[in-house]
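Q: Fold this one first, please.
A: Sequence and structure below.
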Amino acid sequence: MKPDIPAVLAEIAGLAARNAAPDVDPAERAGALGLSAALLGMAAEAWDGAAQRLVEENQAVRALLADAGERAGENASLASGADNDLRISTLSANNARLRAALIALHVAVEGDEAPEARALESRIWDELRLSTERHRLSGALA
């Protein structure tokens, strides 16, 4: 699960509003403030790297689709796309389409014993691992 930045900010706003009341227990307020600070730090880090991460992932998946050729099926046309609009919402929408295409490609090569299919599946797994690493925040446990 990946919480979106707006959802995290909405949660922080709720914590701030609830803890503004004078009758809130000081220990509860301190915990909420600590959580808010941690969430703001994570949101800032995620937001700062979001466009770069999405562009990298989109390029990597497009390269896989291009190299897959006919195996990419109806999704082959996505390989020639580009991320010219760098708004997070647009990059995320492109990423969702490309990930769906990658899943379809993975299904197509998973049962194929041809050496080219095995190599492509290995590259797909490599990209999935790299994608996970790109999403890791600096404070995350290894």
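Q: Good. Now the second chain.
A: Here it is, same layout.
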Amino acid sequence: MDLILISTTIPKMVTDFWVQRRTISQIGCAMQMLLYVAMTGSECLLLTLMSYDRYVAVCNPLRYSVIMNPRVCLQMTALSWVVGFLNSLAHTVHIMQFSFCDSKDIQHFFCEISAILKLSCDDTSIYEMILFVTGTVFLLIPFGLILASYSLIFLRVFHMKSPEGQSKALATCSSHLTVVSLYLGSGVFLLMIPPKLYSAQQSQAVSLFYNALTPMLNPIIYSLRNKEVLGALRNVLRMDVSSQIVARRV
């Protein structure tokens, strides 16, 4: 999901910056919107299901392999992809049916829904309300469920008598909680704060963080929980420091 999300917007943005040919076809815009909305919606659902996985791992460790068996994991993953894609397809088809005015200058670095709606000559107020409800379903409800899962997790960790068990439980949740904070935090900002309260440049800055920085950091955040990856990173850093010391001595 992170790879598709970052590949949907960033390559086109970089190309436009270097080539100075800032145009996109209507089909290309629709495809970009389809993939973008599908990946963001799917990842919100997947992060929510992953919080349930962390809840089972900490609160029911003896039953974890039974509850979260490979079949259940596959079903949860497929559900995230399918629901995210169907939601995106419905939005993309509906938006492409609007009539657009003569000005087709998109005030964004990709075909973002709110930026496209500003170009429409039709009354989009009803659809904007539907869009807000959909955003609530895909952002605020998952955010609430994740908070509920981690509230139960922290209550369980607080009652653990073993400091080793507490640190292990928190380490199990740390990477997912970090990704949730980065990913859903910026999404909730864009959804809950009215567009009139921030400029187009601020919206683009948050979107860039949401579309580039977070997907780039996610693999690193998850990989650092792996002891072999963490050990390899330490070795690289030590070698780099050693080479700098030798170079200075020379």
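Q: Anything worth noting on the second one?
A: The chain has a mean pLDDT of 81.
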